[in-house]
Design brief:
The complex is a heterodimer of chains A (about 600) and B (about 120).
Chain A: H1 9-18, H2 23-72, E1 94-95, E2 101-113, H3 121-131, H4 137-145, E3 151-157, H5 159-168, E4 173-182, H6 190-193, E5 195-201, E6 206-212, H7 213-217, H8 219-223, E7 232-233, H9 238-254, E8 259-266, E9 272-278, H10 316-325, E10 334-336, E11 341-343, E12 346-348, E13 357-359, H11 360-366, H12 369-379, H13 381-390, H14 417-424, H15 433-444, H16 469-485, E14 499-508, E15 515-528, E16 535-542, H17 560-574
Chain B: H1 2-58, H2 61-70, H3 72-75
Classes of the chains: A alpha+beta (about 600), B mainly alpha (about 120).
Amino acid sequence: MIRTPLRPLARVLEARAKGENPDAIERENLRLRHEEMRDRARNRAEGRLLMLGVFFVCAFAMVGGRMALLAASEPSEPRASAAGAEIQALRADIVDRQGRILATNLETVSLYAQPPLMVDPTHAATELARIFPDLEVERLIKDFTGTRKFLWIKRRLSPEQQQAVHDIGDPGLLFGPRDMRLYPNGTLAAHVLGGAGFGREGVHAAEVIGVAGVERTFDEQLRDPARAGQPLELSLDLTIQAATEEVLSGGMRLLNAKGAAAVLMDVHTGEVISIASLPDFDPNDRPALPTQGRPDDSPLFNRAVQGVYELGSTFKIFTVAQALELGMVTPETIINTKSPMTWGRHRISDFRNYGAELTVSKVIEKSSNVGTARIAIDIGAERQRDFLGQLGLLETTKFEMVEARGGKPLLPPRWSELSTMTISYGHGMSATPLHLAAAYATMVNGGTKIEPTLLKQNGPQFGPRVISERTSEQLRRMLRLTVSQGTASFGDVPGYAVGGKTGSADKPRIDGRGYETDKVLATFAATFPAHDPKYVLIVTLDEAVETSGTEPRRTAGWTAVPVAAEVIRRVAPLLGLRPEIEPAELTGITLTSN
Amino acid sequence: MRSVLFVLTACAVIALAFWAYRENYRTQQALDVTEQLQRDIGASRARLSVLRAEWAYLNRPDRLRDLADLNYDSLGLMPMAPAQFGRIDQVAFPPEEDGLLEITDPIEVSNMEARP
């Protein structure tokens, strides 16, 4: 670059000749140069600003353009990315503890019609009525020829039906894909699974939502696409559930019972291995809710979870457990059992007179109401209530089925002394068989509280201690004696050392005045093997009667106990329990010295 | 010199364009293949779920029980009983037969005295 000199010689000489100050020329030139520099710097700064501005405009335009594009375009699956099984839109399967399917999905189609597209509505209607006998021709013709633009015809079609509809060949009959919930085992574990129905429906898809049971409880979890179809593992075992249901339904038929329920539970983990309630239903085709009659007349009613019953003498073990725990009695303490016992205006009597006195162990064995009532008086209402509360018998269980919330125990409005006595042998308070199973598990597992659960667990529960290890062992011995020589003698299964307690409770009358005379709810609460309990089994038969003798027998020892024994005989090998020779009582030798 | 450079640049541009063109088509083809594979995977999954459902349906306990009853003559299947599931150390040894010596000169012995 050519710099202009600040003092050009020619002009300086000229100025000197004229007698002017040549410094003025220099100043003038310096000013011009500064102005030029300023203009250049300004231009450059303006250029940079412009660049920056253009850059930002472009960036924002790009963001805006992309947004507009995304908003306007149809959603489509990414073609290039290798999406694997991370996301699945299907409802997850439900499997049993060994991974066998209890509920899964099946792709099927639904049938809908668009009458404006139809070629021959009358022909289509008659053909459809021929394929689906439950559709009426007149109704279809009216729909097809009327003003309607769209109507659903069938929610689910079988492949054969779909082919038959294809063969009609009418362009106005269209199919939409559907995912259908399928319960391949039919009525098996129907109450647990509940059932599913369609939620919001569109032509291309429909929501499958759980209606009852675990399908409803775990609805969110089963529908969550992020779980990628990871199945829900229940604690149930398919084969054991099947065997239990088979034996139970056989027993129910033989004994003319109105209904039956069974709960088989692991005493350490609280896992429910099988839970059955009869009569049952097919969850693939769930019947409608009953609108009249008693709720337990409907097959939808789950007796094991929703049915609150007075469970009778099975409660005696809790009274005795508490008395043992408080140190008030030992199994050998003599109790006055003179029957009938009068308390104010009320009389308490035994099924049969067992003599004037019995040991505590014999009170359980013979099931003496009077003996238990006497122990209960000593315990007192307050303490009894607290103890039953610790066992979880005063509130609903935390069982993972929506129906469990309906199984709230019925308690006396005022826990009087008389209530204390009747509750001690299982009258005046109602609970569900599931409550009883959990409480019995606590009694025999060494004394820690058990919450029943329907999900597969990894290890035992460590609940708060309710009774001591020692008390638990004494109770196990009493339960075993009840089966080996007491009221539940039909319950003995060789090799499995069954222990248990019977309960036969007269059913309360529907009108609420007193009790029925010939309707009994027979319950058997069993545990096996009694010397090292692993499982608790509760069998309840509603209005069962055994008629092989001269007069009908309704006590649990004749009804629920043989059924429970058969269940144990069938189920114990499936549980992997080998028949064992029961360890004999050791001869008492004490080490002493003199 | 300069013209050689121009020619070379032009050649390079043509080559790159050709390469880009080919890559584009290969990408398109790969995408088509992926799409087809995705569809196949989807179809396989659907088929698998149907097969699993069918397997579960055919193995449902009711049906197996009926089949066992129907084929009782040939199979003789019964529900498992505790007796079939004992411990091996609770089973008695079979009587030893081979250990006995062969009788070479038999004598007849009466057990009349042993009877009461």
